[in-house]
Design a protein that fits this description.
three-stranded antiparallel β-sheet, globular, 3 helices, alpha+beta
Length: 89
């Protein structure tokens, strides 16, 4: 999905999420390409407060994005702990 669609999808995901999800999980927009997404998440986890939704744009080479969630306290390898919202439809 393009960035605008991802923003809308994230907005809807946040509206549907219960309080425990909002407190315990990051819900973010990432590049759709796996390697780019992994790099974005790696950098995001170093300092989440420095990132906003638009931060993902500079990591994407094709302008395609997805919305993912993962625990705020993760193990070292995030790839096996992600849930892609658009895959869960």
């Amino acid at each position: 999905m393009n960035y605008k669609e991802a923003q809308q999808y994230k907005k809807e995901a946040l509206q549907k999420a219960d309080e425990s999800v909002l407190q315990n999980f990051h819900i973010i927009i990432t590049p759709a390409i796996t390697d780019e997404s992994a790099k974005y998440i790696e950098d995001f986890l170093k300092n989440p407060d420095k990132f906003n939704d638009e931060s993902c744009k500079k990591y994407s080479s094709d302008g395609e994005f997805e919305v993912v969630s993962f625990k705020k306290k993760m193990n070292k390898k995030p790839s096996n702990q992600l849930m892609t919202f658009n895959d869960a439809e």
